[in-house]
Amino acid sequence: MIRDQAIGSQTDREIHPRARRRPLYRLLGRLSAHTLLVMGAIIFALPFVWMVSTSLKADRQIFAWPPVWLPDPFIWGNYPAVFIYAPLHQYFFNTLTIALAHVFGAVITCSLAAYGFARVRAPGRDIIFMVMVSQMMVPYIVTLVPLYLLFARFDWVDTFLPLTVPAILGTPFYIFMLRQFFLTIPMELEEAAIIDGASRLSIWWKIILPLAKPALATVAIFSFMFAWNDFTGPLIFLNSREKFTLSLGLQAFMFERRTMWGPLMAASTMMIVPILVVFFLAQKHFIQGIALTGIKA
Question: Where are the domains of the chain?
């Protein structure tokens, strides 16, 4: 009995120091992870900070060495100067029109197709879904020449139609994401609605969409960012200067005003601000949608 007590007390003395170290190890682990995240955030934020700083500098400070991070004085005139040298407001309106069409297609058309693939039982549904998903493996640049020839036959070149109609008709990636999210919604909700006499369209609009706000916010942000930053599509299909998007307008401004780095950085800053606003407004739903989408096959 005495021997067992001695062994037990010795074991307790060996366990207690380890148990005391565990909170310390956890604290060090969290501190290391947060330090790496903060360092990564600083590294990724430096180009944006430099761009904003450059947009407020005089020409003599832009190429100064060592670099000048804080402008002295602040040249606020670089921002209104952009509208003097380029019709930025027209580029903004053109880009917004295309982006809203992409968001509409991602939220309405893609969600309706995704609901059909997730809930409606029909012959060949899975085969059609696999064919649609296989399109995600084909690079956009591979289909660019056939698309241009097709849209040229339709006389759509130098219009917004090649940049909006395909997006309104649906995007395979967004349909796949929404379909995976819809599979996580309990089937009992739809069965109860069907018993009450609701149609499929009514179920999609009144039950599925309200429950799918995180996934819808995710695809809306993705589609808006793609359309807002797209350069290849407008470069191929748009020819008229008054129909340029922001990406094409900034490229033309850079070639025409190569020495005006302050206004160029001001225009770039104004182009990025809408994306930041959209992201921060839907940040909560966006993160939740990324976490939940695709957890069910």
Answer: 2-54, 78-292
